[in-house]
Amino acid sequence: IPRVIEDAIKLLGLLEERYLWVDAICIVQDDDEARHDQIQSMASIFANATVTIIAMQGADANYGLRGLRDISEPRNYVQDVFKFEKGSSVITTKQQDEDQSPWSQRGWTLQEQIFARRQLVFIADKIKWECACGSFLED
Q: Which part of the chain is the Heterokaryon incompatibility domain (predicted)?
């Protein structure tokens, strides 16, 4: 099982959720008719999910969901701190361009972005929450 799925299973425990839909496992891959029918239902699946976990970071599924204490690999959160006189400082972080991630290069991910009502996005060693009420980025 790829690390991202292992991490997502453990994350379900924190969220007190019971079920996990993983497209690569839940969609029948060797039956064209069944696969077509299930792909046609993906908008509904995303829309009715409690939360959609989006692993935007990493080259492949073995990268995992970084930064979940006691669950996954630690983050590599890069910050530059510029200190000034009298204790003031400015902290900057490097942003990963979402358009450059492998996730954004895949066609079906557009459905995740459009139809998922609540998203927990793992990107640039940060976690972002998106829902109808707003978007919150951990930084």
A: 1-112
* Degrees to nearest 5, angle at CA 12 with 11 and 16: 120
Q: What residues contact residue 49 under an 8 Å CB cut-off, 6+ apart? A: 21, 116, 117, 118
What is the spatial distance between Cα 112 and Cα 125, in angstroms, rounded to a whole number?
A: 20
Which pLDDT score is estimated for 95?
A: 59
Q: Pairing mode, if any, of strands 52-55 and 119-123?
A: parallel
Total-model pTM: 0.79
- Which of 120, 114, 95, 139 lies closest to 4, judged by CA? 120
- Render pLDDT for 52-90 as a digit per residue (tens, 0 to 9): 999 988 888 899 999 888 888 887 767 778 888 888 888
- 10 Å Cβ neighbour count for 81? 8
